[in-house]
Amino acid sequence: MESPLIEKNMSSNLKDIVVTSQKFVLEELNYHVPLSVINQLYRFFIDQIQDRVAEGQKVTIYGFGTFNSYVFNAREGEADPITGKPFYVPAHYVPSFRTGNTFRQRVAVREVPEELITTHKV
């Protein structure tokens, strides 16, 4: 179900989501919540996910997706174009996100514009 407050082809960032959330709370719940409070709630929510993933925990929001981290193994990098010497990249953690089925299905039903369709010769 698509929100009636979301405009088609609109690029969203946190500010857009905060403003849309405020409109939803006002129109659907008939309650005014200041933008600053909604913004703090979203930032707290995001910080909680980031903190848990940074601690090595997996965070799953059913229907939306799973945030996790994995080890990117140490390796020798490409040669430096100036010195010609290869460089060492140490092992480190990398965050990852896997979409949930509900999210994936909701995106998949969107019609692909003709100009974005390419053909591949086999």
How is the largest sheet built, in terms of strand order?
1-2-5
How is the biggest beta sheet arranged?
A: 3 strands, antiparallel
- Number of domain units: 2
Structural class: alpha+beta
Oligomer: single chain
> What is the radius of gyration?
21 Å
Order of helices and strands: HHEEEEEH
Termini separation: 37 Å
Shape verdict = extended
- Given this structure, which CATH class of the largest domain is correct? Few Secondary Structures
The helix fraction, in percent, is 25-40%
CATH topology of the largest domain: HU Protein, Chain A
Q: What is the typical, i.e. mean, pLDDT?
A: 87
Work out the number of β strands: 5
Figure out the total of helices: 3
Short characterization:
The chain is α+β, with helices and mostly antiparallel strands and 122 residues long. Helix content is 36%, strand content 23%. The protein is extended.
SSE layout and pairing:
Elements: H1 14-29, H2 35-54, E1 59-61, E2 65-72, E3 75-79, E4 86-89, E5 92-99, H3 101-108
Antiparallel strand pairs: 1-2, 2-5, 3-4
Helix pairs in contact: 1-2
